[in-house]
Write a structure and sequence with these properties.
This protein is mostly helical and 317 residues long. It has helices at residues 9-16, 20-28, 47-61, 66-73, 79-110, 114-124, 128-143, 150-158, 169-182, 185-203, 212-227, 235-252, 258-271, 274-287, 296-309; strands at residues 36-37, 43-44. It is built from 15 helices and 2 strands. The protein has a two-stranded antiparallel sheet.
Length: 317
């Protein structure tokens, strides 16, 4: 077949698999113009039209619109440029579809009301930057203007929710719960009280920062007591409390007396809101981190034991 070969619309349709109606549309819009007309006035197309139609069909199958296809055919943009731009656009669409799927699965699992489903959809659609702004705003509002524990605030600011492109329903559910939690006025007030307490302690000279080793000591000591079935009000618990208050006294440079125990009780009560632990748990689910072990049973036991044995300090060291 050479360059003098012409095809009717019907012949093009048979060769390309496109309908006569589709080819006529492409011809009328100038995307595949006829090369000539027959004596009877019918449109005739050359071999170039066949190649253009093959390219048009491929580009249409890939989802490109006619305006972009025209630019490609007229050499206004290259195929690689169009492919790269379209791939980026598809990536956004795919991410959106995956997110919708996760929201729907989370809604089905939750048994959500229409109002809850609407909220979940709106929150899930937020961009990474919008999610960060929501959490950063929560931290700014609760810690802003206070000289709170700098290491703790830095830790909070470094732990932002990063919902993956293809989230599991549990991750969407966790993000919605975290967003709701950070907007809860009662939780915000509780975190603000914690920040104010930290600032007051720093004003009194406490510059000790975070206390991971001390927390681990409490977890191990109380964990053994819990495993042994020791009740917080029992005599056996007194020795556990004595050892731990001595460690706190050493860490904070305070006397190990009844005043320390009252101070420690206040500290545990202010920092012991279970919603604070829930905040970190939800972040772990969203970001795919290992779930942190719950310290609520440990510090609940410690606070109760401390409350029982304050004023009844053992003299055995």
């Amino acid at each position: 077949m050479d360059g003098d070969t012409f095809f009717t619309i019907g012949a093009l349709a048979r060769r390309t698999g496109l309908t006569v109606k589709a080819i006529r549309f492409y011809s009328d819009t100038g995307i595949v113009p006829p090369a000539d007309r027959s004596p009877a006035g019918y449109r005739l197309y050359d071999i170039g039209a066949l190649a253009r139609l093959d390219l048009v069909r491929t580009l249409r199958d890939l989802g490109l619109d006619l305006a972009v296809i025209r630019q490609v055919l007229e050499r206004e943009v290259s195929v690689p440029e169009v492919a790269a731009a379209h791939a980026d656009a598809l990536e956004v669409q795919i991410r959106t579809l995956r997110l919708r799927r996760a929201v729907l699965r989370a809604v089905a699992k939750r048994g959500s009301t229409p109002e809850e489903m609407d909220l979940m959809h709106k929150l899930a659609k937020l961009s990474d930057d919008e999610r960060r702004r929501l959490i950063t705003g929560f931290i700014d509002d609760t810690f802003g203007g206070l000289d709170a524990n700098a290491e703790f605030v830095a830790m909070m600011r470094s732990a932002m929710p990063e919902l993956p492109d293809d989230p599991e329903p549990e991750q969407v559910d966790a993000w919605v719960e975290l967003a709701e939690l950070t907007q809860d006025p009662d939780f915000r007030a509780a975190v603000r009280r914690m920040a104010e307490y930290q600032a007051a302690q720093r004003a009194q000279g406490d510059r000790t920062g975070l206390h991971h080793e001390l927390t681990e000591t409490v977890r191990e000591s109380v964990g053994r007591a819990l495993d042994a079935g020791i009740a917080p009000g029992s005599a056996e618990a007194a020795s556990v409390v004595d050892a731990l208050t001595a460690r706190y006294a050493q860490t904070f440079g305070r006397a190990d007396d009844a005043g320390l125990r009252r101070w420690l009780l206040t500290r545990l009560e202010i920092g012991g809101d279970p919603r604070a632990e829930r905040y970190w748990h939800l972040l772990a689910v969203i970001n795919g981190w290992p779930a942190p072990p719950s310290l609520a049973p440990v510090f609940t036991w410690f606070a109760e034991a401390l409350r029982t044995h304050t004023g009844q300090q053992s003299h055995v060291r």
